[in-house]
Amino acid sequence: MNLSAGQLERIGAALHEGAAQASEALGKWINRPTRITVHDVEQLPLEQATSVLGTAEEPICFCATEMRGRLTGHLILAFDDASGLALADALLGQPRGSADAWGEMERSAALETTNIVCCAYLNAMIRALPEEAGEPNELVPSPPTFARDFAESLVEFALMDQLLVTDQALMAHTEFHIDDAQMNWSLLFVPDAASMAKLSPVG
Questions:
Q1: Of residues 128 and 18, more confidently modeled
Q2: Which domains does the chain have, with CATH numbers?
Q3: Which of 27, 46, 143, 165 has its CA 20 to 30 A from that of 74?
């Protein structure tokens, strides 16, 4: 099911609001100036989204959370090693470049960041959906999971069941800045087939 340009624009506006909320929450958590910006939202096949997230030669890190409530599916925060470890350095109050491997603290930093960002995005998204009588107007993320592998393998593993019913994803082209330094993070919003139908009336 393809969304119209107007529907994508409306979803993008909701995610833009979520980015502002996530910037504030993340900045307070790490005690650093933080800015998250959504430029646009694009609907594309999952296969193409995989190539946007990373190359076949370099592994990426991948934090995924399952959406529960009015919409179901997944939110995925993908990033390279350097960006994820730079976040860990910011949280630990140490110079950038100090963390050089994914230990327990570094993984915890990535997972908590995912939780903060996804909650902000879902809160904004639920406000953009028209209310339906008898249906709770809420979106709740599951605890995120962390993995590190090549982009194609990660997407196939995380979305194995979803690939059986839909091959579409919404890519929010996103910039993350901490202390004015840009981090290479991407947000992938993957509603399942039923939720894609619910998004169609938006806008």
A1: 18
A2: 5-199 (3.40.1550.10)
A3: 27
